[in-house]
Specification:
The protein is of the alpha/beta class and about 180 residues long. Helices cover about 40% and strands about 15% of the residues. A hairpin with a 5-residue loop joins strand 2 and strand 3. It is globular.
Length: about 180
């Protein structure tokens, strides 16, 4: 799909939301970081295609979604966008919630290209790292989210933006 709109790689990194640990129903609170209701955002990464990756704040996120743009993610329909919706509601951010919800619809790529959905046969999901190794011969730098510093998590987010763009460029003919 060719578009006149800017294209952005979007990625978030999360952690358990501290004030919800007491009510989390499971024993392993590390899983809170991947539960869209119980997670908090550590950082929001953004990379316009061909430009340098950056981390943005909540105000910049609000401004970003007010523009018409195409967003490229890896598992964004199942995780990043639903979490941004819930995070925005918790923080009373001025986001276009209905449009964001529409960006999670399966197999629609007009405003959101989820590479995991496009590249993996349904139900046969592979990690971004696995696809990078298969198709680009590169690996992500390993990270232990339970012991990583906030700075290490932010570096990981920036690396994911760059690698997601590389995977997008590799499969651009398919998209």
């Amino acid at each position: 799909m060719e578009t006149l709109y800017k294209k952005y790689i979007l990625d978030i990194e999360t952690k358990p939301q501290e004030d919800l640990k007491e009510i989390y129903p499971k024993k392993d609170i590390s899983k809170m970081a991947i539960d869209t209701d119980y997670a908090d955002i550590v950082c929001i990464g953004l990379k316009e295609l061909g430009k340098e990756p950056q981390l943005i704040n909540d105000k910049q996120l609000e401004e970003l979604f007010k523009k018409r743009a195409v967003f490229i993610t890896y598992n964004g329909k199942g995780f990043d966008i639903p979490l941004i919706i819930r995070y925005g509601i918790k923080k009373d951010l001025d986001l276009p919630y209905k449009e964001l919800r529409d960006m999670t619809k399966r197999y629609q790529t007009e405003w959101h290209i989820d590479l995991m959905e496009i590249l993996c046969d349904y139900g046969k999901w592979k990690s971004l790292d696995e696809l990078l190794q298969i198709y680009l011969g590169i690996s992500k730098k390993p990270i232990d989210f339970e012991t990583a510093t906030e700075e290490e998590i932010k570096e990981h987010c920036l690396e994911d933006l760059v690698n997601t763009e590389k995977l997008y460029n590799k499969f651009n003919k398919l998209i």
